[in-house]
What we know:
6-stranded mixed β-sheet
Amino acid sequence: MxxxxxxxxxxEKKQRYLIYSVFxxxxxxxxxxxxxASYRYFALQKTEQFSNNLDGLSEEIEFDLSQIEVENQxxxxxxxxxxxxxxxxxxxxxxxxxxxxxxxxxxxxxxISIPRDLYLSEGYKVNALMSRGMSQKGQINDGLELMxxxxxxxxxxxxxxxxxxxxxxxxxxxxxxxxxIEVEVSQTLDDPWYPIDGxxxxxxxxxxxxxxxxxxxxxxxxxxxxxxxxxxxIYYPAGKVKMEGHEALAYVRSRHSSSDYDRSRRQVxxxxxxxxxxxxxxxxxxxxxxxxxxxxxxxxxxxxxSAKKLxxxxxxxxxxxxxxxxxxxxxVLQSSTSQAGAFILLPKAGANQWQxxxxxxxxxx
Length: 365
């Protein structure tokens, strides 16, 4: 690491902007994600076309390793949380929970997929943490802070930053700011039952009496599948697939044709595509305004100044290898049932016994 300052000075200006943009991967990611963006400060500003906002803006970014805290120089851990958002049933239950661990010495990014059904000693699933935190103080960041604290205990990794995004924010990030992405789809995804947003209560031509009778005789997906107008057929062939916001969201959320663990794989494929797109964008040179545009779509405790300070650690960010670590019954978890009869996941060592999970993660990263 002592050689890094000299290496940084030798970089061309364009390369140095690319370095910083990789760190913005943290603010863009999540794969999963939301229905009505929680706009903060920048949402109150006058909205213009993204390309117009960036015209004429450029900033020379100076990198100073002395500004980086010692504990961040070897590794950094970030929580990525995706949720439905306002207007969705259970909108602040986390649909996706990924822990991104960056090992700067090994030049490796590990995405640790946390199952939504992981059961906590407090008596609820891990996907309810954000909602619980919000119920105590009322803000999304309060929920993300509580989630960060608890998942740090589970994984044994100190989470420094968190980033949360909802469905609408995710789709706008992919479609507007990134102008689409190309995802390397490793396995064909064919799902004829992907829910259409806003069609959850569509009667599909049935009368109230017919719906009442069907509800009395069926439940779960057996009932929902009768309302075919509420679903669309999505298909992604194996290979490189160009995706806009809606396609990207459907790709990471599809459930009926696969498992939650398969969804985690797809989320990492999409995160990788986001990283690659950041290196292709000509707008990278306008990073402060680019960061501003992203701030409209996410909730995070990562600010622009913190990103600038950490940027030197990602000189070779494009070359970092990426791996997905799934916590599942195949390794450190076991399936169980709660007292209420719901499906849950517990550590194999027993409820609230996380040491085996921590050891497993430590060995992998």
